[in-house]
Amino acid sequence: SQRVKVKQILSADKTHYEVTVKGWVRSFRNNQFIALNDGSTNNNLQIVIAAENTDPALLKRITTGAAISATGEIIPSLGKGQKVELKASTLEILGDCDPEKYPLQLKNKPSLEYLREIAHLRFRTNTFGAIFRVRHTLAFAVHKFFNDRGFVYLHTPIITASDAEGAGEMFRVTSLDLKNPPLTPAGDIDFKEDFFGRSTNLTVSGQLEGELGAMAFGDIYTFGPTFRAENSNTARHLAEFWMIEPEMAFYELKDNMDLAEAFIKYVIGYALEHNREDLEFLAQRLIEEEKQKPQQERSEMGLVEKLEFVLNNEFMRLTYTDAIHILKDSKPNKNKKFQYLIEEWGADLQSEHERYLVEKHFKKPVILTDYPKAIKSFYMKQNEDGKTVKAMDILFPGIGEIVGGSQREENYDKLVARMEELHLPVEEMSWYLDTRRYGSCPHSGFGLGFERLVLFVTGMGNIRDVIPFPRTPKSAEF
Ligand code: ATP
Ligand code: MG
Ligand code: MG
Ligand code: MG
């Protein structure tokens, strides 16, 4: 008979039919009951074997972590905790797992830190099973949202000579033989020769290329790996992360904000609807974690309630200037967790400021708009005041910045003037300026860090725990 997923068996309630299941042993009790996990759900299928008919040599090999195949009838279960079970007529060990060596067997309740050290095995735990199934559901929802609205999924390049003008620190990509490199007249390595005559790096953002697509398809999005040589070791930054970057022609800043808010709500709602089981598991995990904290530090809302709250409430929208007033009026709290640092209008917000606004002041997601032009990129559309630009950042509780976006400057002369002011290479970026030369129009877009979204939805605290293979200064083995 065909292999059936455990999730399907458990959710059907159907009995008296024959199946084959394959997966990994989570536990084995009384020489009779196997809890089998196949990765489709954290709920295990109980397999009952008739011990008296089974070869003792085979029973010995049923250990935690071993891969097995079982065929038999699905019957109602008399035991507590499951409605159905599999009465095995045949059982086969596909891959042994030595209980003396298996790290997940040796450590009882392994910590997240320990699991990060054995990241190659952590998928096999319930916590990481839930996290990565939720991540999958969210990724699927991203494509569904845009596809349903007629956006074209445009793949922007990974290797590029464009540095997106300061979006982040770059990783150089070179084909040079560094043992015998070409040299400049001054004797330095001539990195201009990196990639057949161009200096190249890994992409820090697909936005500029995305704008080219928006000027032809109207609405596009990218969803791909993004690289920043962050050496900051924070719980919110990775060197390799996935960014979702929609870009829309004929959109002004307000349309952009409306889309971003609708998008975030859609994907969260999709996860609640299509993967409630794993979210409830993660919610329960958080409750256990919260119990370790002193009463006053525990959060008021559970994970599912927190997600539902975001779905059901409008995001707060205000300007950077208004936010600065609020921050200036606020007092640093007593235990100095929030040190008030902003003295002047014009300074960039630190994540503690962002979190103060979201978590303490408004207690909901916030969209900040109209930032000082000096702290934002050259391509943002300038406001009439001459000081601010049509930027928007979305700030989330527990995360800080989750989205950065703007309406783009569509006027060729204004854009070039700003580039010259910032000493940007106008000539080299002629390809980009063509969007403003030929049929320019108001357009907008944003970038959302996918892992920050997954962090929020899963309630995890460290970004390394929501990407399968984290790339940070400390981990790049596999
Ligand atoms: P931050 O201020 O947190 O460093 P940023 O302003 O440098 O972020 P943007 O260039 O605006 O980031 O990129 C758009 C989005 O990409 C951010 O809002 C964030 O969600 C995400 N992002 C940026 N850098 C990283 C990173 N190193 N790791 C994970 N996500 C990131
Ligand atoms: Mg940054
Ligand atoms: Mg930022
Ligand atoms: Mg930003």
Overview of this structure, please?
By secondary structure, the protein is of the alpha+beta class. The protein is 32% helix and 22% strand. An 8-stranded mixed β-sheet has the order 6-10-11-16-15-14-13-12, sandwiched between helices. It has a 5-stranded mixed barrel with strand order 1-2-3-5-4. Strand 4 and strand 5 form a beta hairpin. It is globular. The mean pLDDT is 92. The site of one magnesium ion has 2 residues, from strand 15.
| Order of neighbouring strands in the sheet with most strands | 6-10-11-16-15-14-13-12
| Each distinct ligand | adenosine-5'-triphosphate, magnesium ion
Low-confidence stretches: none
N-to-C SSE series? HEEEHEEHHHEEEEHEEHHHEHHEEEHHEH
Shape: globular
Report the end-to-end length measured between terminal Cα atoms: 36 Å
> How many DSSP-defined strands?
16
Mean pLDDT: 92
Main β sheet profile: 8 strands, mixed
Main location: cytoplasm
EC number: 6.1.1.22
Keywords: Aminoacyl-tRNA synthetase, ATP-binding, Cytoplasm, Ligase, Nucleotide-binding, Protein biosynthesis
Domain Aminoacyl-transfer RNA synthetases class-II family profile: 132-468
